[in-house]
């Protein structure tokens, strides 16, 4: 139970960072984000992504365009805003620091 | 076999089996319920619905199917995840934070307009929330104060201006006084901060100057008015249209029945009554038919138009309505032609007089015989037994719209010769003079003269088969000067050239008859003459008295003057009296 909770916490923190990183590579549709997250074995269900995307958008990190689709309703294609890019670069830095911290923690500073 | 349902999800039309539909509906409700307290619930749910629609269409294409079944829906649910799985990623940690935050705040109600339960602007509902009353009592009280004096209207308008709308979820919760630490109130910290920020900006908005509030009020008022006209107004129009349809349909039905009746399926005797008695036998069918068309088609058009208003549906096509118009015009033309034809039969006038000398007597009694005259045929028709001689059928039928104008008129004149005579004048119209004369000859009229009593029939009859052509009967009664006439009350209305109702005998209150006398100046009311004579006598007496006074007191000039004036007045009055007599 404790392990599960910590896993969830870790995943959750990383999920947002990963979503922003995926979108940073170019305009992308929600289900493609999901596909990428799934191949990275990060996301269990799609339903989780939509609240996250909406929140990021409302915080001004994302914006989207409606694009006509051949199979079904028009799709929202997401891009990063300038704010989003700024936040992402901060997060990149934090990730470097974390990776370093984890590496140090696991292997010792002197190895 | 399974019933399918067509749904619109994410603006995509999808055919879905009923069982699959139930499954999908349950899932979407779950999702909606989950996000209901989320600030962006609508957007998230829309995104999810769009995605579901896409997944379903993809599956249909892949599997080359037309209809979504339960397996497809289950696949979609598996893909999207159940709501229990949503929790793990998004909001778990923030929940306790929210709870502690909100529990620390005292919950107090605020006065907002409830736009969800509004009738006009949500004022009553808002007040009801604030006071914890049932809204219907508040509405009733408002309505009563509006009706009794109208102060409620003013108060309502003021509250409309003052009270802000409850827009955000937080405001709605404040309005209803619900504790904000709701279970499932899913927000993380920054969302919470955002909501607080929104709340602050809302609070600033509430502090707007009052004229801005008035502006909002006016805008909302007209918006409400527009909604009322397009909503309730439409309903009122439809109700009116339906009433017109019902009554119009009834009227059309009665027209059909009426026309059928006039076409002779019913009772021929209707043609003895005015105005149907005008119409010639041969033309009846044509006239009834065209009159029917002229009445029927406009009402039919009204009903059809009402159907269109009420059900927004065209009841008949253009060709048919055009045909109806042409038929109607033909009907109008026929009626016009027939009316012209009939009126041409009133062109010529003919008179026929018949003079009877009566025994000259000093007194006559003029009366009207109210008992109805029956021909032998009528007696059989009405089952009147000839043996029951004592029974009299009284004709009390007043002049109604369907009674032929067949009353007689009695004119009393002074006889130039010394004989009493009755002149009956029959008049009629006709197409030519001979036909007019013939129509006049078709009048049958009788009176009874026995000793001093003259009993007139109030109406004349037309001989069987003759038509109404404005026939009239005048009775001229000529009596020599000095003849007394007793006129019964029943006869008053038939005597035209004297004010029979003004002659009231004050001494005799029974008033069922009045006494008259023929003078050189025409017929005079005896009671009136008596009154005049008494008055004259009094005046003469006064004159004598005045003249006596004048002689006795010649010294007093002022007195003399007033007496002289009075004498002149009295003389003048007497002079008129004398002239009158």
UniProtKB/TrEMBL annotation, chain A:
Residues 19-88 form the Transcription regulator PadR N-terminal domain. InterPro entries: Metal_resp_DNA-bind_regulator, Tscrpt_reg_PadR_N, WH-like_DNA-bd_sf, WH_DNA-bd_sf. It comes from the Bacteria. This is PadR family transcriptional regulator. It comes from Pedobacter jejuensis. The lineage of its organism: Bacteria, Pseudomonadati, Bacteroidota, Sphingobacteriia, Sphingobacteriales.
UniProtKB/TrEMBL annotation, chain B:
It is a single-pass membrane protein. Residues 217-346 form the PspC-related transmembrane region domain. Residues 395-526 form the PspC-related ToastRack domain. It comes from the Bacteria. The chain crosses the membrane at residues 137-163, 235-266, 286-307, 319-340. GO terms for cellular component: plasma membrane. Its main location: membrane. Keywords: Cell membrane, Membrane, Transmembrane, Transmembrane helix. It is found in: Cell membrane. Residues 109-166 form the Phage shock protein PspC N-terminal domain. InterPro entries: Phageshock_PspC_N (IPR007168), PspC (IPR052027), PspC-rel_TM (IPR054321), PspC-rel_ToastRack (IPR054319). This is PspC domain-containing protein.
């Amino acid at each position: 139970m404790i392990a599960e909770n910590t896993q969830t916490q870790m995943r959750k923190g990383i999920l947002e960072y990963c979503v922003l990183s995926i979108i940073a590579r170019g305009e992308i549709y929600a289900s493609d984000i999901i596909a990428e997250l799934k191949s990275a074995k990060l996301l269990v269900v799609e339903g989780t992504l939509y609240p996250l995307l909406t929140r990021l958008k409302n915080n001004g990190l994302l914006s989207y365009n409606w694009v006509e689709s051949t199979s079904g309703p028009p799709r929202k294609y997401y891009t990063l805003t300038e704010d989003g890019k700024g936040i992402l670069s901060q997060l990149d830095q934090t990730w470097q620091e974390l990776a370093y911290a984890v590496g140090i923690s696991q292997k010792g500073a002197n190895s | 076999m399974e019933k399918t349902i067509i749904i619109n999800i994410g603006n995509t039309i999808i055919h879905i089996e009923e069982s699959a539909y139930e499954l999908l509906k349950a899932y979407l409700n779950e999702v909606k319920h989950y996000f209901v307290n989320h600030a962006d619930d609508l957007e998230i749910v829309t995104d999810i619905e769009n995605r579901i629609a896409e997944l379903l269409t993809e599956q249909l294409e892949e599997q080359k199917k037309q209809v979504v079944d339960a397996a497809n829906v289950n696949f979609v649910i598996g893909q999207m995840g159940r709501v229990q799985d949503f929790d793990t990623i998004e909001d778990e940690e923030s929940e306790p934070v929210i709870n502690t935050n909100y529990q620390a705040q005292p919950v107090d109600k605020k006065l907002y307009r409830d736009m969800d339960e509004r009738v006009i602007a949500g004022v009553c509902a808002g007040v009801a929330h604030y006071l914890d009353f049932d809204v219907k009592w508040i509405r009733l009280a408002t309505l009563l104060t509006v009706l009794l004096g109208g102060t409620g209207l003013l108060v309502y308008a003021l509250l409309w201006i003052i009270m802000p709308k409850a827009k955000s979820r937080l405001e709605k919760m404040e309005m209803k006084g619900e504790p904000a630490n709701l279970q499932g109130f899913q927000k993380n910290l920054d969302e919470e901060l955002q909501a607080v920020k929104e709340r602050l900006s809302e609070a600033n908005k509430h502090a707007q100057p009052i004229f801005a509030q008035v502006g909002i009020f006016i805008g909302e008022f007209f918006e409400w008015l527009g909604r009322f006209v397009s909503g309730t107004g439409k309903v009122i129009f439809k109700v009116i249209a339906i009433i017109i349809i019902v009554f119009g349909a009834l009227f059309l039905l009665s027209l059909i029945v009426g026309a059928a009746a006039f076409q002779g399926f019913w009772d021929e005797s209707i043609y003895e009554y005015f105005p149907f008695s005008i119409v010639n036998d041969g033309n009846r069918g044509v006239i009834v038919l065209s009159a029917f068309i002229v009445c029927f088609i406009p009402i039919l058009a009204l009903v059809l138009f009402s159907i269109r208003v009420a059900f927004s549906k065209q009841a008949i096509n253009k060709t048919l309505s055009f045909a109806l118009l042409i038929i109607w015009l033909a009907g109008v033309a026929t009626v016009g032609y027939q009316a012209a034809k009939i009126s041409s039969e009133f062109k010529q006038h003919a008179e026929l007089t018949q003079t009877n000398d009566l025994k000259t007597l000093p007194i006559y009694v003029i009366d009207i015989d109210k008992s109805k005259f029956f021909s032998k045929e009528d007696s059989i028709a009405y089952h009147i037994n000839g043996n029951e001689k004592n029974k009299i059928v009284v004709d009390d039928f007043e002049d109604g719209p369907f009674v032929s104008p067949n009353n007689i008129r009695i004119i009393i004149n002074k006889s130039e010769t010394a004989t009493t005579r009755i002149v009956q004048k029959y008049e009629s119209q006709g197409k030519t003079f001979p036909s007019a004369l013939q129509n006049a000859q078709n009048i049958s009229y009788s009176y009874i003269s026995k000793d001093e009593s003259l009993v007139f029939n109030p109406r004349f009859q037309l001989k069987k088969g003759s038509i109404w052509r404005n026939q009239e009967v005048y009775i001229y009664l000529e009596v020599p000067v000095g003849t007394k006439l007793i006129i019964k009350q029943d006869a008053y209305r038939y005597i035209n050239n004297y004010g029979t109702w003004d002659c009231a005998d004050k001494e005799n209150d029974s008033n069922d008859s009045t006494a008259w006398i023929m003078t050189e100046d025409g017929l005079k009311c005896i009671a009136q003459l008596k009154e005049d004579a008494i008055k004259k006598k009094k005046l003469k007496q006064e004159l004598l008295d005045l003249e006596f006074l004048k002689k006795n007191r010649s010294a007093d000039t002022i007195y003399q003057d007033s007496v002289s004036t009075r004498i002149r007045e009295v003389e003048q009055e007497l002079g008129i009296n004398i002239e009158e007599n």
